[in-house]
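Hi support team,

I'm opening this ticket because the web form for multi-chain structure prediction keeps timing out on my end. I have pasted the exact lines I submitted so you can reproduce it. The total is 652 residues across two entries, so I didn't expect it to be a heavy job. Is there a limit I'm missing, or should I split the entries? Thanks in advance, R.K.
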Amino acid sequence: MIEATSPDVAGGKPIQIHDPSLRDGHHAVRHSLGADQLRAYARAADAAGVPVVEVGHGNGLGASSLQVGRARLSDDEMLSITRDALTNSKLGVFMLPGWGTTRDIENAIAHDVDLVRIGTHCTESSLAERHLGILAERGVDAHAVLLMSHMASVEQLAAHCARLVEFGATGVGIMDSAGHYLPSDVTERITAMCAAVDVPVMFHGHNNLGMAVANSIAAADAGASILDACARGFGAGAGNTQLEVLVPVLERVGYRTGIDLYRLLDAADIAERELMPAPPKVDSISIVSGLAGVFSGFKTRVLDISAREGVDPRDVFFELGRRQAVAGQEDLIVDVALALRGSGPGGQS
Amino acid sequence: MTDNDNRAAPGRLSVAVLGAGLIGIDLMTKIIRSHRLDLGLVAGRDEATSGLRQAARLGVPVAAGGIQSLVDVERPFDVVFDATSASSHAEHVEKLSPLGTMLVDLTPSRGGQMIFPTVNRADISAHRDLSMVSCGGQAAVPILHAITAAHEIDYIEVVTTAATLSIGRGTRMNLDEYVDTTQEAVRRFTGVTDVKAILNISPARPPATFRVAMSLLGKDLTTDSLRSLVMGAAAQVRSFARGFEVKACSANDGKGFVAVEVTSSGDRIPRYAGNLDIINSAALLVAETYAADRLSMAGVVNS
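Hello R.K., no limit was hit. The queue was backed up. Here is the completed structure from your submission:
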């Protein structure tokens, strides 16, 4: 076994890697992963010693929909397949209140989930109060994550994190859902969050501006102890922080992940071969999405609708940014496209 | 509040609002203008809240004893609007129904008879506990009811977006009930079983106008047919919610998409808060309809 840790820095500060390839990656393939795909990747990640494997529809429990995309497998199927494939890794799920409900959480608990993440838009932490309370009562590890976090100030993020801990969160974090941050942005935010709470702090990057690995290292240096990363970056838009790059880079700069390098590289190869037609890349649309600060997951819908309505998808992204669309507001894409095309309600499409 | 004289003027009903949050206070401003309803009390749980202070400033009697303030009255109210929390509604029914009070439920509790004024007006006076379902339900069901009466629909999805400033703590704690009750209402009034409801909260500035996007799967959907059904239903809803507007309406390849937005008009709440306006305007219309039915049955000449 070849440890990713280089010998001279063994024993560095531990960092927990959380792998949402089988959840965020769903955004890249229209939520179409099947049983064999989930099983193959979950086994490989488990063998590599990835501490947490998260699974589900791209928007989490209960989110299969026309709005975002209908999942090929039910939550039940995804949970039981992934649970069975994991021997050491913990099983994680994600839920957005308003999309999933307590019933979905109860179902995940029945599948013996280890960690539930409750997500809200970065300024709406109060939407997580009830579900964090329920999870605390049930004794389930419950982390709270703030989505589209570039849309809130540093002070707001720190204050929301403190409230989330009061609601019962055992960890808090931010998602750079639009891949908008530069490393200095991340340093400032994570530093403020770490000062505001005494639970583990998480960072989840997207690579729209090519900054995901650098942003994640900045997060770790500022005190984050949980980092999200996906095999080959498999995730929405330009993809997430690339797992098999992040882990050895972390080790080189002195952190300890406990992940086996060769098996991690094997898992990434399996992911590329089994899960995706091609690894996510920083394409022109993803750059615009990152600059505009629009949820990376909108990409496939924006491309579909822009092609249908004959408008420039880059214009659609910038207009969605101007309207401050939040994750989940995919229904705005049609309105924006029609407005750009210059037709009102009832336009032929 | 035993000194409170809540007797309604002749030909009118005495009403009270329970809950002094965003919904309760907007409802109060609407009731004050009603020619059929006399607002006798706004009851909250804390005198220091801005809602009760606002009510007091308008000269409306207020009480801080919650449900008990409505029970401890000499003469029970004819109608009580419940603008509290879904989990409390059953208790409120239990306490008020024996007094002969009709309840109009603004929480997503799913306890009472669901009412959409342009769809099942006739049910109003036949029941004593009326559910207004949800803001998204009030905007979507009239449209979906019209579409499903004319088309074979396999799946319906309702995505609501409301501005963060228009969503109070009660709603934030009741998201599960919002989703479940909205779904159930769509099922009951369309006959379609495969239904999904989603709620987004937008922090955009200026605030996003209340919006309900509906997606439908049905092989025979056409833009022309959809448009005529939707415009017809929307015109009816506009009879009580003037700011109800169709923003998108199209069908393509077996998939229909309709988006409506609702602005509030003429009240103290801001224009974007159409969510408060549509459910409260519907609730007001329901109570006024009950008043008219009751007074005509009693042979009182309507003024």
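A quick check on our side: Chain A touches chain B through 34 residues (CB under 8 Å). Let us know if the file doesn't open in your viewer.
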